[in-house]
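Figure S4 source data
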Amino acid sequence: MPPNRNFTIADIAVDAQGNIWSLDGSSPTQSDSVIVISPGGNVLAHFALSLNTLHAYGCFLLNNEFYIVFGSVNPTYPSSVVQIGFSGNQAFVQTVTPFPNNDNMDVASCVPGIPQIILSNPEDPERNSEITISPNPSTDFVRIKIPEAAFNKASVCVFDYSGKLILHRTLKNRSEQMDLTKLANGLYYLIVDSNNKRVMKKIEKIY
């Protein structure tokens, strides 16, 4: 990923040639392009696309078409599967299909190719590199814990239910508290980015 750029979607899609398809932008929740990256890490293409990607939790390729899945919080395409079309160096929203997904936080992409078997070392720390956010609900503070294997250039954002950015800060330690005392009672979305990993959690602030 080029400097000062962010993947703006939780998951990626991979085509039959092993190229990565995703969205990127200067803000974690505002895309300005579809990006295609080769297996070697080279950027193959950018297709201009301005899109609010709050709660865009996945994308996939199907029959050579590119789709994005949005959860209920996205202000433009809530609970929808959006097909993206391409023309020259531009991308555009082609079709929108309602998708009552109950905010499941993952989708899968399947393409023709040779099956691969991935063997994981049970001692590999990446197997347990989950970022945790607690307590939830919270009356005042939430603690963000990032395992050592996943901690690098970490940041956290809090958005309200409409998608407005409320809080943003850089995390200097693997375990830090975020002060929620000034927030009104209600539901929020907290996004943690660290070491090219992204975790998005729905959190509730209560009195």
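Figure S5 source data
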Amino acid sequence: MYQGFYNLVSGMLTQNRNLNVISNNMVNVQTAGYKRDKMTSSTFDEEMLYRTGRKNKGNPEEMSVTSRIRTAQQTHVNYEQGSFQSTGGIYDFALSADGFFCIQTAQGVQYTRNGSFYVDNQGYLMMNNGLGRVLGADGGPIQINNENFTVDGSGTIRVVDYDGTEQVYGTLRVVDFEDYGQLHKEDYGVYSTEQAPRDISGQVPIQWKMLERSNVDMVEEMTSMMTSQRALQSAAQALKMYDQIMNRSANDIGRL
């Protein structure tokens, strides 16, 4: 009977963690460049059950393998490309292939798919939450002093004056990585990693005045949420029944 307590409590904890992951996906459904998370679970440990005699304990017979605890194993990030949304914003950019924009933050260079930028009071291109400055292909921050600029498909930002003089403010730095499994998701939609980035600036098509939508499927998340909630409720009800049975066995049967 005590086996049930392990199974039910571990199941409730696992489903609660899964609900947290699903809730985070749903909250970020409108966040540009957001990549959905998916939690996987596994058994904590497996044990072999044996059958023996009541008196003779020799020659045990193998019955089956059981696990007492189920636990959250890992949260995986789905890096599938999201759809594009036209915004008309001159500081909005979207990557049309694999890659990440580079942001100079207080913790070092971090990476994002969220191309919703703005310029600060010094004219530097910034991430929309003020986390850090957007880096150019030369490794330095991009400074824009004229709003009448244009951006080509390679991410190069330039202004052509009335006399035909061209001024290039820079090219958006875009990098990629060999192993996405080593990327660590931070707050505000950025990623960090110890990997050396591969510079692909100018090689990835960049959509100007557009943003990449999150790849969260709201219907799928709602379905997963309801399934997880039902599993959590069922485990809680069964655990309540176990507690009542144990209470009766201790108080009522123990008197006989």
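Residues 218-251 form the longest helix (34 residues). The radius of gyration is 27 Å.
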